[in-house]
């Protein structure tokens, strides 16, 4: 492939990745709107539903976010009553995020989101497994940090 062919949109990996991500996020929007969450708030809550309590630095790592992005997001979730943000009793420099009772109750309402999307059959079960494996491989790669 010559240099100019490399510039064709149809030869890019990044563009269909970007476009698919946008399509998926747009599909999530009406479902998450019913919960009063953005997608980033939703995935944050997913981590908390799994762990109940998490250090801010671990949340940054799990979600591939920057700390300042997460700080604002956590303030919003705390105002909604879904999480409590506090300094660790063991290490005052460390911030812990704890799921509240309201956050646990939200989990029951949120189960409809993945169920609804799974029913849409974008890919076969086997393709979904393969796709997730490839995406996780890319996420674990060195991106010249």
Could you write a compact summary of the structure shown?
The protein is 60% helix and 9% strand.
Question: Care to describe what's here?
Answer:
With 145 residues, the protein is mainly alpha-helical. The protein has a single domain, classed as Arc Repressor Mutant, subunit A. 60% of the residues lie in helices and 9% in strands. The chain is built from seven helices and three strands. It is globular, with a radius of gyration of 18 Å. The protein starts with 13 loop residues before the first helix and ends in a 5-residue tail after the last helix. The model has no long low-confidence stretch (mean pLDDT 92).
Which SSEs are present, and which pair or pack?
Blueprint: H1 14-33, H2 39-51, E1 53-55, H3 56-63, H4 67-79, E2 83-87, E3 95-99, H5 101-110, H6 112-118, H7 125-140
Antiparallel strand pairs: 1-3, 2-3
């Amino acid at each position: 492939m010559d240099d100019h062919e490399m510039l064709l949109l149809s030869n890019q990996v990044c563009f269909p990745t970007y476009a698919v991500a946008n399509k998926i996020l747009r599909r999530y929007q009406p479902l998450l709107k019913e919960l009063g969450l953005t997608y980033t708030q939703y995935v944050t809550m997913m981590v908390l539903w799994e762990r109940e309590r998490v250090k801010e630095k671990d949340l940054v790592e799990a979600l591939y976010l920057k700390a300042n992005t997460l700080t604002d997001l956590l303030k919003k979730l705390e105002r909604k009553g879904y999480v409590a943000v506090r300094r660790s009793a063991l290490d005052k420099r460390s911030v812990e995020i704890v799921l509240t009772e309201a956050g646990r109750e939200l989990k029951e309402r949120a189960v409809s989101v993945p169920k609804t999307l799974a029913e849409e059959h974008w890919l076969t079960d086997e393709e979904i497994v393969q796709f997730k494996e490839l995406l996780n491989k890319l996420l674990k790669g060195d991106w010249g940090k």
